[in-house]
Task: structure prediction
Amino acid sequence: MISICDDLRKSVLQAAIQGKLTQQLPEDGDAETLYAEIQKEKQRLICNGRAENVKILPITEDDIPFDIPETWRWVRLSEIATLYNGRAYKQPELLSSGKWKILRVGNLFTNNKWYYSNLDLDENKYCDNGDLLYAWSASFGPHIWRGEKVIYHYHIWKITHSEYVNKRFLYFLLLNDTIQVKEDAHGSTMQHTTKTGME
Result:
């Protein structure tokens, strides 16, 4: 029964990200207009030093895994979002108490043990309630953080995205893609993927 439920959930998720669950209405607009607005927004952020100017690779036929509605457009993740790496800690820096909790991959899945830090870091090294995260080493997957402000560890990316992108859609897109990421991951004993590969 669990297997059937899991298969059904995967099928619904796959249909949703392919645009097959809802009718495409003219008043919804089209991806080309939206993409142009996102690029304007991104250029403003780059000029203000709040986003990186990442080289975008062209999308080829081999990159396209399925058909999408005519009003949609394929883009790379780095065109609509920015991935920030957390901080890499040395063991002596992991305290039993302190100013900030350190969110590690295990805390997103099964581990309730917390380490702490007294360091004050750049703002992009913290995550707040509602931030979209992605664990990329050992255990994979997207998460929307539900908790207090914390420092997130190196094996987690914080994903900031355009205001024109729906966070829940991006979450489900990444959730659907996690299986492929696992298959493409490098490493034999401790699997991981790269930031460039994810973008």
The chain has a mean pLDDT of 85. The first strand starts at residue 81 and ends at 85. The two ends are 36 Å apart (CA to CA).
